[in-house]
Automatic annotation (TrEMBL):
Protein species of origin: Cryobacterium glucosi
Functional note: Key enzyme in the regulation of glycerol uptake and metabolism. Catalyzes the phosphorylation of glycerol to yield sn-glycerol 3-phosphate.
EC code: 2.7.1.30
Binding positions for sn-glycerol 3-phosphate per the UniProt entry: 12, 82-83, 134, 246
Catalytic activity of the protein: glycerol + ATP = sn-glycerol 3-phosphate + ADP + H(+)
Protein's name in the database: Glycerol kinase
Pfam families, per database record: FGGY_C, FGGY_N
Residues annotated as binding ATP: 12-14, 268, 312, 316, 413
Keywords: ATP-binding, Glycerol metabolism, Kinase, Nucleotide-binding, Transferase
Length: 504
């Protein structure tokens, strides 16, 4: 009897395979980081072949640690970094260029060109997104325009595009030997190409971008059998039956299935998703409208999302670029070595500012410095920046929804940082709640896969699995909260209008 489900979590910095039991508890996992490639300022790339090779290896790690085989696995789900674009050759199976990562800003000239006719909200009514470097569509255009021979091959129907879920799915199901070229509605909704109402590729938008429809994967629901794993991995003959973009997967893993429920994920960036049910809500406050999930032939559930580009990546930057800490886990102790931020504010606009500002001209700023400020204050300012950005996004959610949240469910790596979680509650003025299983992204993908094959029966069974681990209540004086927020907003203004045409 197959007693487990495996989730492949293809993230920005690593690929993981996590095996879950029927209670939604972690049985074992495997994880491998992949190289972060920075060819120029503002460019961020990954090697798709490294990602695929790592995927196979982490599946083996997870099975081996639990002493399981493919016969013990009922289904496999995939979750992924959503907007990262892979373009590969239909005849060789090889990428024509590195994956261009969601954080990459090289496509700003393409954004400007497309926005010249109708502005950055030119397609927002259909797709829920502004024109921005963040999304996959402009990355495909860049590859077609800058990689030798790519345009001719695309026009001849020889190139395939996918976000990393599609790349992993295609390879898992056989690649050149009958691999399935598909994606789910949540990932498709992050390309700039999918109509939110029809859940189909919009031919008029594809024509405006000059991207051949033949490149694009088939759009499917988030929970159905897409194909069967081939002999290229240890999951041979296992159904691949769930796909959710990472933030939608985390929302699903938090059992936030219904209208009005929300979660905030603390990863490389921060992503707050507010479930709007079956209604498409267009934001007036800088949020994105996206698909939350669709289970088989069931109704489509939509969401508002606040996307923040740099949060956990700021901690990595302090570790890797400045050497202030030796590991990410050290930042909490360093921040606790001082009682406050010492007047320092860190605006980590390394890739511009995402929600609610959408300012590609912004760059990182560390302000309020005096000789009193030391590395402890900088560490605290970095953690506080994560919470301030989340507060601004939550304010936008409350304004759009008209129903203020009374508590915020949290997950992701930085949700383990108690200092950050307490400050988050303080600066929000609402309760912050962390679940027992913090790996909600992988859990959501596992849930979607398991539902498709009957491993779990319904959403009520999944709701029953959710358990609270820790809760933080606001403790900060309201006047002090207002002072900190006022200074944060002032700091944000110092990061704007930085990039001119002659400044990279």
């Amino acid at each position: 009897m197959a007693d487990y489900v495996i989730a492949i979590d293809q993230g920005t910095t690593s690929t993981r395979a996590i095996i879950f039991d029927k209670a939604g508890s972690i049985v074992s996992n495997g994880q491998l980081e992949h190289e972060q490639i920075f060819p120029r300022a503002g460019w961020v790339e990954h090697d798709p072949m490294e990602i695929w090779n790592n995927t196979r290896e982490v599946i083996g790690q997870a099975l081996s640690k639990a002493n399981l085989t493919r016969h013990d696995i009922a289904a496999a789900g995939i979750t992924n970094q959503r907007e990262t674009a892979v373009v590969w050759d239909r005849t060789t199976g090889l990428p024509v260029y590195n994956a261009i990562v969601w954080q990459d800003t090289r496509t700003q000239p393409i954004v400007d060109r497309l926005a010249a006719d109708g502005g950055v909200e030119r397609f927002k009514k259909q797709v829920g997104l502004p024109l921005a470097t963040y999304f996959s569509g402009t990355k495909i255009v860049w590859i077609l325009e800058n990689v030798e021979g790519a345009r001719a091959k695309a026009d001849a129907g020889e190139l395939m595009f996918g976000t990393t879920d599609s790349w992993v799915l295609w390879n898992l199901t056989g690649g050149l030997e009958g691999g399935v070229h598909a994606t789910d509605v949540t990932n498709a909704s992050r390309t700039l190409f999918m109509d939110l109402e029809t859940l189909q590729w919009d031919d008029d938008i594809l024509a405006a971008f000059d991207v051949p429809r033949s490149m694009l994967p088939e759009i499917r629901s988030s929970s159905e059998v897409y194909g069967i794993a081939s002999g290229q991995s240890l999951l041979r003959e296992t159904p691949i039956s769930g796909i959710l973009g990472d933030q939608q997967a985390a929302t699903f893993g938090q059992a936030a299935f219904d209208q009005g429920e929300a979660k905030n994920t603390y990863g490389t960036g921060n992503f707050l998703i507010f479930n709007t049910g079956t209604e498409i809500v267009h934001s007036k406050n800088g949020l994105l409208t996206t698909v939350g999930y669709k289970l088989g032939d069931g109704e489509t559930h939509y969401a508002l999302e606040g996307s923040i580009a740099v949060t956990g990546a700021l901690v990595q930057w302090l570790r890797d670029n400045l050497g202030i800490i030796g590991s990410a886990s050290e930042i909490e102790a360093l921040a606790l070595s001082v009682k406050d931020n010492g007047g320092a504010y860190f605006v980590p606009a390394f890739s511009g500012l995402f929600a609610p500002y959408w300012r590609a001209d912004a760059r990182g700023a560390l302000v309020g410095l005096t000789r009193f400020v030391n590395k402890g204050h900088i560490a605290r300012a970095a953690l506080e920046a994560i919470a301030y950005q989340s507060r601004e996004v939550l304010d936008a959610v409350n304004a759009d929804s008209g129903v203020p949240l009374t508590e915020l469910k949290v997950d992701g790596g930085a949700a383990a940082n108690d200092l950050l979680m307490q400050f988050q509650a303080d600066i929000l003025g609402v309760s912050v709640v962390r679940p027992v299983v913090a790996e909600t992204t992988a859990l959501g993908a596992a849930y979607a896969a398991g539902l498709a094959v009957g491993f779990w029966n319904d959403l009520d069974e999944l709701r029953a699995n959710w358990q609270e681990d820790a809760r933080w209540e606001p403790q900060l004086d309201v006047a002090e909260r207002d002072r900190l927020l006022r200074n944060w907003k002032k700091a944000v203004t110092k990061s704007l209008d930085w990039v001119d045409e002659d400044v990279l």
